[in-house]
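Reading a protein record of the kind used here takes only a little practice. To see the layout at work, look at the sequence and tokens printed below.
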Amino acid sequence: MKNLNDVLSGVDEVLNSAKHGNFEEVLTRTKSYAEKATKKSAERLEISRKKIELLDSKTKLAKAYESYGKLQYSAYIGEEVDGDAVEKALQEIQLQKTRADLLDAEIAELRAAFVDGLSKREARQYEKQEKAEEEAETSDAE
């Protein structure tokens, strides 16, 4: 809701300056503000999309570990285990670990670029919000 308030206060500022200044200047400032807001929204959307991909990868990784564990337990208790199934589970684990690591790095880069474009106040707000979201995710996982 704070972001909406920031947008509305920015619009109010532009409209108030229209009363006292040049209409062309107001249009230019409005366009500039809208472009900046659109760019920041797109950047946040990309970060969110990468987070969803990361969660998907971690879910697949957990399933691969589960599959591998079941196969290993079957072998431990003396059941016949298909070697190809074990190899497939190991490959899936490695694939998803690599994918998750790459996505983590991409998210870190996107976050850094996003924060660099913010004012100090906005950066503090964003980091505070990110920390709260991460804590919520951690508590949901437990």
Notes: The mean pLDDT is 84. Residues 23-76 form the longest helix (54 residues). The radius of gyration is 24 Å.
